[in-house]
Write a structure and sequence with these properties.
Blueprint: H1 9-12, E1 13-15, H2 16-25, H3 31-39, E2 54-56, H4 57-71
Antiparallel strand pairs: 1-2
Helix pairs in contact: 2-3
Length: 76
């Protein structure tokens, strides 16, 4: 994992299922899906001991890229 300059960190963090849903799905109505996926450990999210979940945009994009790579047939 590459080191991120401290001034970039706030721009990379998504706070709450609503923000994560908008980033991933383009609509806040998917925040329940975000909670579900997070509860099943199917999304790379984290918390700081509160009910609010957080995610890094960069980590989510890498996660999606990895998922796409697994979905491709071998040799492509």
């Amino acid at each position: 994992m590459s080191a991120m300059h401290n001034s970039q960190l706030p721009e990379d963090i998504l706070e709450g299922a609503r923000a994560i849903a908008i980033f991933l799905f383009g609509d806040a109505k998917y925040q329940r899906k975000v909670f579900y996926l997070a509860s099943k450990k199917r999304l790379p999210v984290f918390g700081f001991g509160t009910a609010t979940i957080y995610a890094r945009k960069s980590t989510l994009l890498k996660f999606i890229e990895d998922q796409e790579g697994r979905a491709l047939p071998k040799g492509q």
